[in-house]
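Example record

Each entry pairs one chain with its bound ligand, thiamine diphosphate.
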Amino acid sequence: MAECASPELIQYLDYEGNPIKDFEDPFTEADLKKLYYTMALSRAADEKAANLVRQGKSFFYAQASGHEAAQAASVWALGSQDWIFPYHRSVPVLFARGYTLAEFFLEVMGKAGAVNKGRQMPNHFGKRSLKLVTPSSTVGNQIPQAVGTAFASMLKGEDAVSVVYFGEGATSQGDFHVAMNFAGVYNTPSIFFCENNQYAISVPLRLQAAAHTISMEACGYEFPGYQVDGNDFMAVYLTTKKTVERGRKGKGPSLIEAMTYRLGAHSSSDDASRYRSDTELEEWKRKGPIKRLLGYIKHKGYYSEAWQEETDDRIKEDIEAALTRAEEESIPEPQTMFSDVFAETTRHLERQKTLFLAHLEKYPPTSDH
Ligand SMILES: Cc1ncc(C[n+]2csc(CCOP(=O)(O)OP(=O)(O)O)c2C)c(N)n1
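C-alpha cells for the complex follow.
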C-alpha cells in the first residue's frame, strides 16, 4: 500500500502566528509582506464585492473571507507553467495568481470589459494567460477537467502540475471520485485541493462524508492525503510544495484537505445565522489566517506599524481606483450574448438572435440592469 493519509493535522504556527515546531522557512521578508498584501487585499476586495450586491450593482457574490491562507499560500507553491482550476469561492487564488483588481470588479459587475466579457455569473473567474480555467456552476465538474489536463501535460512530457480547488461538499459528487480514481490509475500530476469550510451551504460536514477526514479518502485511490490547518499559511505552503514536487517528479497525485471556515454566508442569497452559531464563528475568527500571518511577521521581527498602515492605505487606494475603472465601463450589449458561443455562429443561434433583436426593438430595456 502506498503512503497514505497523514494521521494528524499538519500545523506549523499557533493561532497567534508563532511557530510550534521546527521547519525550514523559505519566505523572505519581502515574500511575507507580499503575501500579506495579497491576503489583505483579497479580504478587502471580497467585502467590497459583497457590498456591491447590496447596492444593486451586482446580482450575486460568494465571499471567500476566511479562505485567504488556504488559497494564496497554495498558489504561492506553484509555477507559471501549472494549471489552476478554481471553484466558486476562489477569490484569493485570483490575486495570488496575478489577476488584477480591475479585472475582478469588472467581472463582479458584469461589465463588457471583463475577461469573460460580462457574460459570466460572478464568481466564475478565469483567465487563459494565467492558466486559470473558468469553472462552471455545477459543483465538482472542474475536478475531472483538471485531471484530464494533468494527464495531457503528462503525455506531452511537460512538467506542469494541475491543481483543482473545491469545497468538501464537492467530495460527495461522482465527479470527485471518478477524477480521484483516474488520477490514481494513471498517476497524473494532479493536486486535489479541498477547502473544508465545514458546510456546503447549510449541510454540515458530518452529513457530507462518512470518512473521518476527507484527506483519508485518498487512501482508497492509493495516493497520499494530507490534512492541513488551512488558516496556517506555512502549513499550506509547505504541504502544497511537497505535492507539487511529487507531481513534477512523475510520482503522481496528492489530496490536500485544508481545514478552514468561511466568515460570511455561503453567498449573497444565504443567511448563515440560520445554521451556524455566533460562538462557532467567533472561535474560527480567533484562528483567522490574516491575523496569524501578521503574528508570524512580528515573530520574525519584520513588523512595524508604519508598514502595516502604509500597506492597508495602499490596498484602499488600489480598490478605489479599480472600482472607479469598473464603474465607468459599460455593460455588454444584450445581443453580444450570441457571440463566441461557437467558432462560427450556427443557424439556430442566428435565428434566436434575429428574434431577440426584434423583441428588443419592441420592448427596449428601461434601465441598464
Ligand atoms: C451539482 C450541483 N448541486 C448543487 C448545486 C448548488 N450549490 C452551489 S454551491 C453548493 C455548496 C458547495 O459546497 P462546497 O463544495 O462545500 O463548497 P463551499 O461553497 O462551501 O465553499 C451547492 C449545493 C450546484 N451548483 N451544483
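The chain has two domains: 29-331, 333-369.
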